Amino acid sequence: MNRPTPKPVVGGGAKKVLYALKTATRIGLDNTAKALTAKNACKACALGMGGQKGGMTNEAGEFPSVCNKSIQAQSTDIQPGIPPEVIDHSLSDLRELDGHELEHLGRLAFPIYKAAGSDRYVPVDWDFALDLAAQRFAATKPERSFFYSSGRSSNEAGFVLQLLARLYGTNNVNNCSYYCHQATGVGLDSTIGTGTATVEMEDLDRCDFILVIGANPSSNHPRFIHKLKGVRDRGGEVVVINPAKEPGLVRFALPKNVKSMVSGGDWIASDYLQPRIGSDLAVVKGLIKAVLENGAQDDDFIADHTEGFAALRADIAATAWAEIEARTGLTQADIERVAGIYSRAKSAVIAWGMGITHHLNGVDNVEYIANLCLVRGQIGRPGAGLLPLRGHSNVQGIGTIGVKPVLAAEVMARMEETLGVALPREKGLDTMRGMEAAHRGEIDAALIMGGNLYEANPNSAFAEAAFARIGFKLFLTTTLNRGHVHGHDDSEALILPVTARDEEWQPTTQESMFNFVRLSDGGICRLKSVRPETEILCELARRLLPDSPVDFEAFKQHRTIREAIARIVPGLEDLADIDIAKREFHIRGRILHAPEFKTKSGRAHFVVRDLPPVKGGLLLTTVRSEGQFNSIIYERTDSYRGMDRLDVMMNAEDMAGLGLRDGDAVVVESEHGLMNGARVRVFDLARGSVMAYYPEANVLTATAVDPRSRTPSFKATPVQVRKNA
């Protein structure tokens, strides 16, 4: 009997249109339209949409620029408040809910408090909450505290948070980039002298080649797919390098394109390599090797604008093709073919995600991506350069305005001079060092603004123990997540409800992955008892630091905050009057349309690194589904891959070698933990690879970090998979 050929899975398409319609109907078409068309930056990824050109217009003026992530983000904000009767349940009851269920309980509409030893939260009023928070931090030595922000908060809130922490007496100021793209910042700084993208959005319309390595933008940055399609439409090439053959990167049906929808989708990748997990450095060395062996390097650019090329050439020559093939699982011919496509490109952009940074050698990976770009002179001119694909909508801005443990000396000096203050000089704890200190019982109070730090951590058992040993935790959030109900049995927790971006009482600003600063109007009122993060932080500062030379009452005005930032942070001078001029802008000195590098010599550096030790056996990478953003689970089913949250994906030959069949119940084990309740599924993966969803698979991952970026290795964990008896 002949079986019909399975219909190929395509990203986007009707399923996303129907999802959007269903979501919009559930939350109300008027509410949806108001939220999506208001002049506020999108709350999802940092690709950039919204601001003063309108909610569904990007910085290049393209309309409509809206994607499923935008609608998903709005769907949680446009919820009614959680009823008090729900809050009255015990922590053990709430822990029975998964992340999806907690997120969809509704918006937190009033402050809630859990006393030490109590088994539940109770509603409290704002004065009690703020007085209690100030008392707990006042009773804590500053070095035994830490302050954390996600990337969804505004520049204004982030600046006040880090200023509050430093005036309080600590540089233990962290943000979520230490768990995602910190390796990018370190790697780019060591090679080209700047830690962010070198291209603007318009460059994606000028290039004829884009390499996407270690990322799945079809799920995580859907509007980037429009840019990839644009390259193909112009006759250019899109190459994807990823251990998994992601359906949305092969073919994608663009919802706003009728032809794309009717035809069953557009072809995205013109070539696709699937290397073994953890072999990224060997892959990139192979690409450089092929470029050099073909004489395709840009000798003039290298001579005029770089240094260290001789050492790189020697390193590449000493790396044998046999070793590259053995490590990557790719053939020399595969790599040479892709290198040939790259070598013929006139203007190339290289983009990457956390598949590159989530390794113990993540910085090395980024440095060699920069090497690959430099060796062909594909940087320092329009239409060419480097593009880290960042997640949260303002994660780059949060770092720019100082939410990090170490500030540049110039910024520290300007802050002290502008505000008339003296700031601590002790080196602050990064995110993992802060969690490790908590795990040792050395953190007594923590302020966590947004995000889900509990589930952002690797090694779930470690994270829960660390949270449990923090005596007092203050959360600022719009909705509940598992970090609010795990790790609090014997400690105090206070959760304060905050406005969403489009509900802010005053305009706020955000920075895209293209170094572009947007102005968000705010102004929508949904819940009467929620407050802006800046309002809460300034009220806490007034109580905690009554003798501070900084007037935190004045800092409740966002214009005052922006004026201070403009005087303190180089490149943000245009922020001072953005609310008056309504003129959004690129941060000065970042876009590299001329080969003027920010290094001491003014030249870019070729950097040489050794290949990492080889890991044998099966290697696990954790990934996001189409139905989630970071740790937020909007849908339990991944419509692109056809998987559920506890599905573990493997290569068919690897499964057969273990005696496993598609759909078998399995146990996945690492030296750090055990994942039960999973089933194994066949997926188009490189041999030796296992793929499972984050954060469910965090129980398997380790707290070991890249020594230079302090980013955990979520992407190459040795595991064993066995059939569940």
Summarize the structure.
This protein has 725 residues and is an alpha/beta fold. The strands form 8 sheets. The chain has a 7-stranded mixed beta sheet.
Q: Could you characterize the architecture of this molecule?
A:
This protein is an alpha/beta fold and 725 residues long. It is 35% helix and 17% strand. The protein contains 29 helices and 30 strands. The strands form eight sheets. Strands 3-2-16-15-14-4-5 form a seven-stranded mixed beta sheet. It has a six-stranded mixed β-barrel with strand order 21-29-26-28-27-30. Strand 24 and strand 25 form a beta hairpin.
Estimate percent helicity. Answer: 25-40%
**N-to-C terminal Cα separation, in Å?**
33 Å
The percent range for strand residues is 15-25%
Number of helices: 29
Biggest sheet statistics: 7 strands, mixed
Order of strands across the main sheet: 3-2-16-15-14-4-5
| Low-pLDDT residue intervals, each spanning 5 or more residues | 1-7, 13-21
Please tell me how large the radius of gyration is.
Answer: 25 Å
SSE-based structural type: alpha/beta
Say what oligomer this is: single chain
Shape: globular
Per DSSP E runs of 2 or more residues, the count of β-strands stands at 30
Mean pLDDT: 91
Keywords: Iron, Iron-sulfur, Metal-binding
InterPro entries: Asp_de-COase-like_dom_sf, MoPterin_dinucl-bd_dom, Mopterin_OxRdtase, Mopterin_OxRdtse_a_bac, Prok_molybdopt-oxidoreductase
Domain Molybdopterin dinucleotide-binding: 618-718
Pfam family, one: Molydop_binding
Topology overview:
Layout: E1 11-12, H1 14-27, H2 29-37, H3 68-77, H4 84-87, H5 91-95, H6 99-103, E2 112-114, E3 122-123, H7 126-138, E4 145-149, H8 155-168, E5 173-175, H9 182-191, E6 209-213, H10 217-220, H11 222-233, E7 237-241, H12 247-250, E8 251-253, H13 258-263, E9 266-267, E10 271-273, H14 280-293, H15 299-305, E11 306-307, H16 309-317, H17 321-328, H18 332-344, E12 348-352, H19 354-357, H20 362-375, E13 385-388, H21 395-400, H22 409-419, H23 431-439, E14 445-449, H24 453-456, H25 460-468, E15 472-477, E16 492-497, E17 508-511, E18 516-520, H26 533-544, H27 558-568, H28 578-581, E19 585-586, E20 604-605, E21 618-623, E22 628-629, E23 632-633, E24 637-638, E25 643-644, E26 647-650, H29 652-657, E27 665-670, E28 673-682, E29 689-693, E30 717-723
Helix pairs in contact: 1-2, 1-3, 7-26, 8-26, 8-27, 9-20, 14-17, 14-18, 14-20, 23-25
